[in-house]
Design brief:
The complex is a heterotetramer, with two copies of chain A (about 350 residues) and two copies of chain B (about 130 residues). Chain A has about 350 residues and is of the alpha/beta class. Chain A is built from 15 helices and eight strands. Chain A folds into two domains: about 280 residues, TIM Barrel, CATH 3.20.20; about 60 residues. Chain A is globular. In chain B, about 5% of the residues lie in helices and about 50% in strands. Chain B contains one helix and eleven strands, in the order E-E-E-E-E-E-E-H-E-E-E-E. The radius of gyration of chain B is 14 Å and the shape is globular. Classes of the chains: A alpha/beta (about 350), B mainly beta (about 130). Chains in contact: A-B, A-D, B-C, C-D. Bound molecules: manganese (II) ion (2 copies).
């Protein structure tokens, strides 16, 4: 019997090229998401609200109408942590807090019960020197505001070490300590990427990389993953050197090793996901390209969903298509088709 | 004129009301170098995936107004509703449940009448993704 | 010393692809015309007034402002003779008269002192059976309306036999008989086309015609024109047959013979133009493609301008670029560049 | 992102006032997947026919407002004027007499700042016809 506690959403991020090139507007993107079978939509104010950072009553009312027309609910609103507002000056913590409040109030105005917050550790601790995002102290101040308005703060995690990483646990503790259900982690599936996606191969090939080398590299990554052993570059480096990789090819491999090569064992990542599943508040089903069965071709979706279900996740899983960014320099990417196939595939995993 | 451009990718999608799909729409542009009254549209014929669409199932939407397609073919249709040059005329096909999301093959035959030469016929055929 | 009584305009028709593909709007098209050096613009309500057939006070006011901003005058407004309004019914003469009044009042509202009227004989007498446009009787009724509003009716002539054709003279007589300066003929240079334009060769070649045959055909047409002898197809038919023309090639040649082959001697055409020049109210400088000197490559512009000047033409000569329609199926046609070169070239002929 | 698309053909032309050309304008789109406050534009650098444009001669026009380009680089520039995603930001170059009508080679370097990665740099170079 199908698992009943997971519902599906689409992040309108997935339709960014349709929007940028004026094929679909905000309403059209909602129609696309509804047409994919999703029950929820994730809204990006910075992307698709023309009057942003303001939201008029008219826009808010229209959004209520659009949800009714298309039979979908706004389930998540996107926050960005723009602290480096000026060339030589950044927002203070107080100003950063105010900006967080702005996003929470925007979500509230639209009737969207969740803000996906871009927090300091979303790509790992001290990911890039000099950048300081919305951190623990600010989140501690935002939590009562969110609670007061009934808006949940979802902290997205798309680090290589996932929701189980020690530096993420303080947020769960904060939620538990304050006994507030308005804060939680939100894993992004990119954590579970075990190989270079074909979307990356399309991208790098269009920039001059050698396809056959990247495909060889990818096949070795896949082999390691399905053999449940860590992939080490040294195991293939001699063979790749023989194939005379050019600079772009090397760059592609280097990037993939940076993203994937430093993950903890996948057994740990899946165990963490399962152990924390019941406490997660939102899930981003990231994908770049789909294989012939419509499974994202660099992530083990069956195992991810098994962990979510066994761990008792209750909430939305949102398609977040990012293959557009990887593949659109090589031509038009049919975001609508990708999302449709992705939604149907995920539904088959319940 | 403009034959290969009259069928556009703009807002190509299912049409919804009360959470249900009641049809789908495509935006088309005119096959002439000026706008024309809708009464000068001689024919809009659509074929979707090889199946001709019943004219009785077509609604035209333009400049905030809607007209059943068959109305504009009548001899008493007003002459002051224009299809402006370069602007989208939305053709809505009524169909309970809409069209399956994804790629479909669409063929449009557009005939517009002017008073000093034979009717202009443009044919455009392409695969479109319906959202 | 330059001839002072000719001023130059651009018909915004020339920028139709820029408008259709949303690169330039109405204001952008006016800017393009002004930038070409023109002093006047010809406005097509049916093409570029979004609210057509209505013109709001706001639009009219804005048009005054745009003329001031871009330093150009609206000199001519385009009328179309849409009588076949319905599938099975046409406008009556009374209704056709009312439609003429509508265009005259639109021009007046915009402050444009001339309507280029699409009259029955604009492409010749009884050009196409079953089509009946705004004819002599209706024009006779429109003339006092136009006079009352101070709007001149310009009857465009782009027939093979030009403004001197006997069936056009009744309009000049009507103007003289009523002693009203508000009616006159307006030649379109297409009458003077003596060969297939390279724009047609681009067009037909993109549809499968054989370029070398059409270029051969064209060179023979040019040879005849500059030798001042009539071009007869029989003189080249044997050679062309040897080159094995396909159907599209044949169609191209047939069309060219239809357009050009039945002209009166060019000496007569130019004499007529000169003789009537002082009575003409407007001139359409049609062009399809330009040669390496920027002269339209199928018309003898120097001789045309000589006739206009010697005949004492006073008024606007308006660029009407139609190469877009011929060449755009084969790719983007740079209308802005074409008009700019055309305007500069015409100015050199004064 | 969108590198080859940030320089558009839209409304590419001279700018006029009182019958005189006072400059010319190009419309550009953002190199990111969302809109950004103008204060997060790190740099807009234009080269026209190989000549760099003086930043002091650039005006930005967006959503009915105009800003001298150098103003948006100041640390006290408001953070609530956005350059919406997919929308045209008009860059007006002040130049008495404008630019000669016709084709010109334009190179745009656009740098936008986000707070969690290095500044995004996009470069787009193409021939544009200025009307
Ligand atoms: Mn994500
Ligand atoms: Mn003409």
């Amino acid at each position: 019997m199908a698992y009943k506690d997971i519902k599906f959403a689409v992040s309108l991020y997935s339709y960014q090229d349709n929007y940028y090139f004026k094929r679909l507007d905000f309403e059209g993107a909602i129609a696309a998401a509804a047409g994919s079978g999703a029950e929820g939509i994730e809204v990006l104010g910075d992307t698709m609200i023309p009057e942003w950072p303001y939201i008029s009553d008219e826009f808010a009312d229209r959004f209520v109408g659009l949800q009714y027309r298309y039979g979908v609910k706004g389930v998540c609103f996107e926050h960005w942590s723009d602290r480096a507002m000026w060339k030589n000056k950044q927002l203070t913590d107080d100003e950063m807090f105010e900006r967080g409040v702005m996003y929470i109030k925007a979500a509230k105005k639209l009737g969207i019960p969740m803000v996906k917050l871009l927090h300091e550790e979303h790509i790992g601790p001290k990911a890039i020197a000099g950048y300081k995002l919305t951190d623990y102290g600010i989140i501690e101040r935002l939590l009562p505001v969110a609670a007061d308005l009934g808006v949940t703060l979802a902290l997205e995690v798309h680090t290589h070490d996932g929701v189980g990483a020690d530096y993420q646990q303080k947020y769960i503790e904060l939620a538990e300590r304050t006994n507030l259900p308005f804060l939680g982690l939100a894993p992004d599936f990119s954590t579970f990427s075990y190989c270079m996606s074909t979307a990356d191969i399309v991208d790098y090939t269009s920039r001059g990389a050698q396809k056959e080398i990247l495909e060889f590299f990818r096949s070795k990554q896949r082999g390691a993953y399905f053999a449940n052993v860590p992939f080490v570059y040294e195991a293939v480096s001699a063979e790749i050197e023989k194939m005379r990789p050019n600079d772009v090819t090397k760059q592609a491999i280097q990037f993939s090793m940076h993203m994937i090569g430093r993950k903890p064992p996948f057994d740990k990542l899946f165990k963490d996901l399962k152990d924390l599943a019941s406490k997660l508040v939102y899930v981003h089903a990231k994908f770049y390209d789909l294989d012939e069965n419509d499974c994202p071709d660099d992530m083990d979706y069956p195992r991810i969903f098994k962990a979510l279900k066994e761990g008792g996740y209750k909430g939305y899983v949102a398609s977040e298509f990012e293959g557009n960014r990887r593949m659109n320099m090589a031509g038009w990417v049919d975001e609508i088709e990708y999302v449709r196939r992705h939604q149907a595939y995920m539904r088959s995993l319940l | 004129m403009y034959d290969s451009h009259i069928l556009t990718e703009h807002d190509c999608r299912n049409m919804w009301e009360h959470g249900k799909k009641y049809g789908y729409g495509v935006d088309i542009t005119i096959n002439y170098y000026r706008g024309l009254p809708l009464s000068c549209v001689e024919e809009i014929a659509l074929e979707v995936d090889g199946e001709p669409i019943d004219p009785a199932d077509m609604i035209l939407r333009i400049s905030g107004k809607e007209f059943p397609y068959t109305d504009i073919l009548q001899d008493d249709f007003p002459t002051d509703f224009y299809w402006p040059f370069g602007e989208y005329l939305r053709v809505i096909v009524l169909k309970d449940g809409g069209i399956p999301q994804g790629r479909h093959h669409v063929k449009l035959t557009l005939k517009t009448r002017r008073s000093y030469t034979p009717t202009m016929v443009a044919v455009c055929e392409k695969d479109l993704t319906f959202a």
